[in-house]
């Protein structure tokens, strides 16, 4: 193996990556950095530019500007050597319908020097396709085809797996299986780049995420940090919301107080601090609910149709 591949800090990097199709700018100045061993989520609504970005990562689409660096070397349609260490699942896997799942993998195995029958069995087991391995592919459900596609993408022991919306078209059980599989790959030390328009999916499996909208990164960071930046909202039922609101104005971190009938909503302060402060004014809530705005709120705020400056 080429040593320079191993020494690079980021296994996958895009530098000011851009792509226009005529007047449409699909990807604009994208800077992504994926570390070896992490599950990196690439989250954005439909049309955000995810598949175009992945196409450039895999040397399928030539960038209009900027570059993709994979394992320390540049990838272009004319220079794809680094892709030997990558497995990818983009769209429906290209497999032969009249062959069994196992024979499809056998056919692919001819492309690689070190993929033997044992490796094929290992991958069939990993994606839970042992039982159906000898059935013809055209009898498979979408989920089964997708799992076999994953086995095919993993056959040659890639260091990085790029998955473009791998749970599209799957039922909830199939989606959960794919998510579990992704975590398992990560546990085995494989880096995963996962694109998705489903927030809960990336929230559940990813270590870090980049949110993309209209071809641009709107935020990038650890899932925990993105959630942590969000504010706490506390809803209270009190005898006199107006009096409680007046009392709570004195708290330092208050962002917003709203009254609504018998209820009071306070944004920006922890529930303990609210209860302690109200007690000093002899106000005792009869109900209290508290929630952190979650990644969903962040996602919706970041990708809402309003133009951001
Ligand atoms: N080959 C193409 N020709 C013209 N426009 C394209 C082409 N591929 C993608 N686009 C446009 O680029 C934008 C991003 O598309 P895409 O990368 O497929 O987004 P996503 O995968 O996030 O849904 C969309 O506006 C899409 O219509
Ligand atoms: Mg897409």
Bound molecule kinds, no repeats: adenosine-5'-diphosphate, magnesium ion
Structural class: alpha/beta
Helical content class: 25-40%
CATH class placement of the largest domain: Alpha Beta
Could you give the count of β-strands?
14
Looking across the biggest beta sheet, what order are the strands in?
6-7-8-3-9-10
Structural shape: elongated
Integer average pLDDT: 89
Strand content: 25-35%
| CATH fold category name of the largest domain | Rossmann fold
Number of domains: 2
Q: Helix tally?
A: 11
Q: What's the N-to-C terminus distance? A: 45 Å
Main sheet?
Answer: 6 strands, mixed
The CATH H-level homologous superfamily of the largest domain: P-loop containing nucleotide triphosphate hydrolases
